[in-house]
Prior knowledge:
By secondary structure, this protein is an all-alpha fold. It has helices spanning 9-19, 33-45, 62-86, 97-107, 113-119, 123-137, 142-145, 153-166, 176-186, 202-216, 221-233, 236-248, 254-284, 289-313. It is built from 14 helices and no strands. The two termini are 34 Å apart.
Amino acid sequence: MRLPKPRGGLSEWLVAHLAAPVAGEVAPQADCWEDACLSLWTLHELSYRGFEDADDRAEWAPSVLTVRHDLETALEERLRSRWLASTQPAPDVPTDVPGALEALVAADDGPSLADHVRRRADGEQVLELLRQRSIYHLKESDPSAWVVPRLPVRAKAALMELQYDEYGDGDPNRLHSHLFARGMEAVGLRPEYGAYVDDALPETLEMNNAGSLFGLHRRLRGAAMGHLAAFEMTSSLPSRKMVQGLDRLGLAGPMAAYYDEHVEADAIHEHLAARDICGTLAEDEPDQAADILFGAFTCLDGESRFASALLAAWGAES
Ligand SMILES: [Fe+2]
Ligand SMILES: [Fe+2]
């Protein structure tokens, strides 16, 4: 993957600086939200697969870490303020975390892109959705993998059970990210990691940044696992709708197979994530309970903002 096209002063500075970091250089402020989203996404990618045209040492360069710290602080404040605004007067600290996760998911009334795909989307819209989704699905489960060493015994074992499945049960051809790449190829899109980042909506980048932020900070392990749980709990049914929509548009084949895999897998993963990961984590580390719900809310809220933005761009009712 190559460094993305800048979208403002900060991302422009970063693209130049990451190619050849200069000690002591000070970054400018982001011009706008989109510039900040792309900049943080770029910085996080240094910890995943990196860029062909960036210096690998930039990941830990102090000048770069300072920028990452400032962007992450602003992102976390924004996400927490959305969470607090949604739970006025103040969020409860749940005693039954799996039950609270179920209630949160049940109350989610965000627009459904999968519904749109099943019933009305045209082929171009589906390809646009897949390009946006590729930013995450081509590194599916990687943000959760950061969290493994930070969990107590029961949650760690359950997360590994889930991750083993996501990573193909030992078969490289079954890796979910690889299944998605094969699906991209089959529908005529580029399967390479990060190929469509220049087309990514800021909402797409922000959703990815939230997952990376939670995954990269031990302090946010509860939020990371809550985020994972909400993702898994809202995947099985929409995946079935995606299969139906892809079928309707004559795009059955490897892309439909990717979603089909998730109909059954995520029906199991949602219980693993809610009960065996988040439930036991909250029992073993009660101070994580509130952040588990914060992470779950952030996942649902990010998806809802993304879906609204895309449906609005298409002039489609949610
Ligand atoms: Fe998956
Ligand atoms: Fe899953």
